[in-house]
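Format notes (please read before filing issues)

Several people have asked whether sequences and structure tokens are stored in separate files. They are not. Every record keeps both together, in the order shown below: the sequence lines, then the token lines. Line labels are part of the format and must not be stripped during preprocessing.
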Amino acid sequence: MLRKKIVQSLGLIAGIILISLSFQQSASAFNLIFHGQPNRWVTKPWGVTGIEDLDVNGMLYDVEFVFGSFDEVFLYNVGDLTELEGMTPMFWDDLDDGKAAAAAIMEALGPHSNEIYCGLRCPFNGFDVFRVPVGAVHSTHLRSWGDNTVPLHNDILQPSDTHHRANQSLYARFQLADNPSLTSVPEPASTVALLAIAGTGFLTTRKRKKVE
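Then the structure lines:
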């Protein structure tokens, strides 16, 4: 009798978990934001301006692509890079998460990796290179992760320690999404196990009713 009750309880718990998981957000539910429409015969700029709800190590971020110098993009006018005074980049002094953020951008862009919009100041109509700043090498040069390769269409994630803060580049600027906590979705094997427990509990309850 006690064993049956335990099985029934486990089945009920598993069923509740499965129902709740059906309402949870998928880890791949990011959204690319576009400006304009691609047209090889028109010179007006177009491309991806940002990414909403990008998953980086279990947290969701909104990403904006901004072209300019480091000082312009992150609102610094003077000062030493080792002692920041304005907007601190999201993954500053965090090399590992910065690398994960850059990798997440490359994966999210997919076939649009050479279609990043960088505004009227950008020399290309659809850009391929971006940087995620992660720290200072010294007062004037910064460390970053990203697709720093030239020519276009050569998507390689790599670090850079040689970029000068005054040189213009395309930066990925991060901020936490409106609902930053990402609830993980169970693997298929886990889902099957939960279904088995729930099914066992259901069958046990049904058999008991027939006996009664």
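For reference, the curators noted about this record: Residues 143 and 183 are 31 Å apart (CA to CA). The beta strands are 31-35, 47-56, 59-68, 130-136, 141-147, 157-164, 169-181.
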